[in-house]
Design a protein that fits this description.
The complex is a heterodimer. By secondary structure, chain A is of the alpha/beta class. In chain A, 41% of the residues lie in helices and 18% in strands. Chain B starts with a helix and ends with a helix. The chains are: A alpha/beta, B alpha+beta. The interface between A and B is medium-sized, with 30 and 24 residues.
Chain lengths: 360, 576
Amino acid sequence: MNDLSKRIHGSARQIEADILRSRKPSLELPVRSLQNVHYNPAKGFFSLGRKRKARTLTVGTVKTFAQTLKMIATSKSLVDTQEIATKREMYYISKNWGEARFLEQDESDTIMDDVEAFFLVNREQLGFVPEEKGGDVAGRLVILDRDPSTGKTLRIDCTKFGSGAYSVPISVEDLGFETSARFILAVETAGMFQRLVKHRFWDKHRCILISLGGVPTRACRRFIRRLSDRCKIPVYAFMDGDPYGYCNIYRTLKVGSGNAAHINEYFCVPRTTFLGVTPQDIVDYDLPTHPLKEVDVKRARDALKNDPFIRRHPPWQKALEQILKMGVRAEQQAFAAHGLNHVLEVYLPEKLKAPARFLP
Amino acid sequence: MTAKAKKANRSGRSSLRRPDLKAPEPAIPEAPEPVDRPEPAEIAGAVPKPAGKRPRGRAAPPGPPPAPPRQREISISEFFTKNRHLLGFDNPRRALLATVKEAVDNSLDACEEARILPAVSVKIRQEAEDRFRVVVSDNGPGIARAQIPKIFGKLLYGSKFHALKQTRGQQGIGISAAGMYGQITTGKPVVVTSSTRPGKPAYSCEIQMDTQKNEPIVLKGGEVAWNDGGTGTRVEVVLEGRYQKGRHSIDSYLQLAALANPHVEIRYLPPGAAEPILFPRLVAQLPPEPREIKPHPYGVELGVLKGMLKAAKGQRLSGFLSRSFSRVSPRTAADIVSRARLDKEARCHLLRSEDVERLYAAVAETRLMAPPTDCLSPIGEEVILKSLRGQVQADFYAARTRRPCVYRGNPFLVEAGLAYGGALPADSLVTLHRFANRVPLLFQQSACAMTEAVLGIDWRPYGLSQSRGALPAGPALILVHVASVWVPFTSESKEAVADYEVIVKEIRLALQECGRQLGLHVRRQKKEAEASRKRSYIEKYIPFIGEAMQEILGMSDPKRAELESRLSDLLERSRK
């Protein structure tokens, strides 16, 4: 029995003791909302506050309570047998639970988040692995991995994928890196990534390109984090110029997610700075725009009010206020209006001349 | 029917002397009057037209001039044919129902007056496509031989119209109208058999009407055996009709009659049926006997007052007042007279028109006690509950009898009953059963004060749903009973009660009192359902907690069972 397995056992003992003493058992969970998230720029990531809520077993919560315990039991057996299950597989395992089964994967994911937070571990430690892969990598990087069957070290050269790319695996903890790159460019969309790869942007600018594909997965964040830590190179983020790109994608990459704040320490990249598209870029490069959607406005206002990261960084507050004032947003691809390769020939080189001016 | 015999003595003569009071119906300028009565002595105490009989207007010109000479005799059949809709005989279907209804009402009135627990039998036989024979018999006291022809062969012959007393019949039209309708449509006479002396043979006769003169003609009369050797009356009418089931059917009429009269046993043989339907007696006690009262001055209209004064020939004013009205003592009478600046010794019939008007005004200004209300005979809460339980399969019953009240000088009281749940249909509007003096009202529901009162209540707090301006919906049945010495019907077919504000208010209060009980019940029911839902919810999921605990801790089955039972106790107790 490993440590986590012992902790699970201990919690169950506690619940048993409560019941036998005719006390309602309860699970104490940290409150998982931005209100209970702290941001310390010195540490560089979101961390969980002290607020906790007790999920007491009552008539109203008996179903969720039963499901939570069943999932904990499943996790314990995964841990004990060193087995893994994806989130989707966990959802299907529950189909054996009769009336307590999950009807949608959303339900089981939520409970998984609860269990994760309850034990203050990440779900990989519980034996649950994510479905989605990490992201795509191209450029001046050699990855040291092992052959799963022989255990022999494999050298994967990320310059040799042609028009394709290296795909970040689910678990990145044991990877090694060799690089001569000066920086990592994290790109929001696969389309932009394609364009940069096609024109060997990484070669000309001595960098590593990583496609995030929207909000970066944990594996992707962990990969970038380890890479930048090991090789001591900065990370520049190139996102759409809208509140979603700023507050969700970039912020999650940099300081972690509010929802899983207990594990952000490992799943964020504090070294990241924001290259663009900034609100000022929209003006400076005369980009075609779309009006801000109502959700964008709401998101920006909410971030200004509640997001500890934004509230800690006046430049970001200025940027959000500016985009709210402009009332428009611009996508990465908007540079195509000035010519397909304007972005890699003009915009990026100009911006890369002054990384110090990137948003924090 | 027997009741009429006893009460009949007042009707005819007095009317002759007070021509302005005679006509009860709107369209009978020359309604033929009963010509003669054997006992003329009674009339001194004759009660005039009941106070406040109808909200609309007086029947006669107030002035003293003698009745104008009859210009032309209008035959009663002509009158009847013209006015049959007023009496409920407007189509063959309703005629059949009205015939049954009049005969049953009469039987019940007669039995109750003689303090006999009524047992009524109704048989309907279809004799041709549109011809039916209705036979109604009762165990009442029977009718004296001499009275039979007049009661059944003469329109507007009866005692009830002139008596202020809670009875089913009021006007002396019903049963003779049924007979006349039968005669007009089929030519068949009414056959009446009555036994007044137990153990002796009964008297039976066939009665035809002289529709020109409104006089009965006895065709055949003779003694016959009476089935069980007791007393009773049996009426047979053959008429053109149509038999139909449904909401306005004879079947539902009798069922409702049984509901409002659980002391009655009704045996009903519908057309074509082999076995009779029995509505058994549910309570073995007669309702308290209603008492007859004198009119209350507040309910008397000016014209009626004039007529009464005229009729009280030779009487002194003060004495007349205290003798003729309820709640007028000699002292109150003196009060009224002096307020009217009249002489209390004045001769009534000599008062001038303006004197009478002052007297009328003085009555209105004088504070009078409300009329006695112990003259009414409610069904009673207990009996309503018993009756509802006997007839309606439901989960919850409520009943309320209000204290008597007065409208226009007439005492009345309201009762309401309510049944909820059980076999009642949940997804339709509630059923409203209306009763006036224990008689079911089947038609003109929307014109009735009872309906108005139901619609005026917000039923949602009581657990029923209701759309704006509609009857509430839900598995409920509502019963409303208005009892009065004079029920103010909106028309002579007696199907809807007029919307006197105080009557509507009383109905509303009675219903709301039932409604509140219903609300409590519905809420309690909901709470219980919720609790049991929770219990089953708990029981559904606890095994999974036990299972998970067993998997994690590797506990034994008995230990797991104990844990589960502890846990369900724990949650049961908390109920939260």
